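stage 2 :: seqdesign
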């Protein structure tokens, strides 16, 4: 696993393969940023889902290219991504109740289909314990390699 801060610093692309109940997905992605979710940037009137005490939400912005021969829902890709802390614990995505908000559309949290060969910018929110700042990225039931 490669630390996320190194992926951002180097600007490298990753080739990822993931398998879920829909079959195999192949994509390239590059991490643009990974920061604590900035709550003041979320529009008024949006209600966030509650968060457990001791947890924080981090926002990952990324570019992704679908290399699968058919369209793939961005949500399927997000479901396969995991943030891993320094102790090896894995954390899945968490839309924070923002999925249908204007904020989600603005940052790319609620993309629909990813057409093959086209580059998209999107975002994924992860809920993690408020104790670690060194995270890596992995694909559940898949592979990831630097290209």
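stage 2 :: out
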């Amino acid at each position: 696993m490669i630390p996320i801060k190194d992926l951002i610093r180097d600007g490298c692309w990753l080739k990822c393969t993931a398998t879920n109940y829909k079959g195999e997905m192949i994509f390239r992605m590059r991490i643009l940023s990974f920061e604590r979710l900035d709550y003041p940037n979320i529009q008024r009137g949006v209600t966030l889902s509650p968060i457990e005490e001791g947890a924080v939400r981090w926002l990952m912005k990324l570019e992704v290219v679908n290399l699968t021969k058919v369209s793939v829902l961005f949500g399927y890709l997000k479901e396969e991504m995991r943030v891993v802390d320094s102790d090896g614990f894995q954390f899945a995505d968490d839309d924070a109740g923002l999925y249908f908000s204007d904020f989600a559309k603005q940052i790319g949290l609620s993309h629909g289909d990813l057409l093959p060969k086209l580059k998209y910018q999107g975002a994924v929110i992860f809920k993690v314990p408020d104790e670690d700042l060194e995270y890596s990225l992995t694909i559940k039931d898949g592979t990831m390699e630097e290209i």
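stage 3 :: structure notes
- Helices lie at 4-10, 74-80, 102-107.
- Residues 4-132 form a domain with the Immunoglobulin-like fold (CATH 2.60.40).
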